[in-house]
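Board notes (copied after class):
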Amino acid sequence: MASFRTWLLASRPKTLFAAAAPVLLGTAMALEAGGLHPVAAVLCFVSAILIQIATNFYNDAVDYEKGSDTQGRRGPPRATAAGLVSSREMKRAAALTFAAAVAAGGYLMWRGGWPIVLIGVLSILFGYLYTAGRRSLASLGVADFFVLVFFGPVAVAGTFYVQTLYVTPAVILAGLAPGALAVAILMVNNIRDFREDEASGKRTLVVRLGRAWGVRLYGVCLLIAAAVPLYLWARDPSRTLVLISVAALPVGLAALNQISRRDDGPLMNRMLARTAQVLMLYCALFAIGWNL
């Protein structure tokens, strides 16, 4: 049996901000709307994080099988590639974690009805398809779009809906910001790994367009995150305090400057962690500003 530390590292804790942050944002907007449902909010957090962990487990196993992850990779060591866990064990852990996510989301599906059932089914399906098969979402270069949608408007609106039982255009629009920042995290990961991905036939968007375009797209993600609160404020000037969320973005700009000039693995790993922190701080500030 692998150690607890091995499984913890395989869960990729730094990426879990991408799952938690949009739930935080959706819950904060439900609170402001007077529809906070604590049980549903907690279960949204649990389900979202479990789906992310299961996806990471499955990605760990499949990337090793496809040759994308080797012991010489520039990113953090992967459990399967390092020989700490077999690919079969990792896939079994992924299946069990997906099952736990379904169990945690059972009440949410009962409360929210078919929209939440659909979100749950599609989230698990696309988590599996992210790396599964010869024509996975990552290999086709379309994973970024699904990250934008499912870590953005779907996660925020789904969290809001399961608590309030309705949704508004402002909630869906607000979801674009965490979705874009989640894509920024993926972009750093793919910029770091583009040589290994290209060699193994994993045609991510960075492999298809080139490293320079990956850096530019990171900047676009920051611009989207800045534009969302500005647009919401322009629509409703009483929402002035939501603009404090933009205060998180200079850290992202500093990371952009670093990844545009340097390419070493340790730096890229730090920038990935920093981008995840930007996402969480952005959503926390947005949540505070929306409720004040």
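Comment from the instructor: Residues 38-66 form the longest helix (29 residues). The chain has a mean pLDDT of 89.
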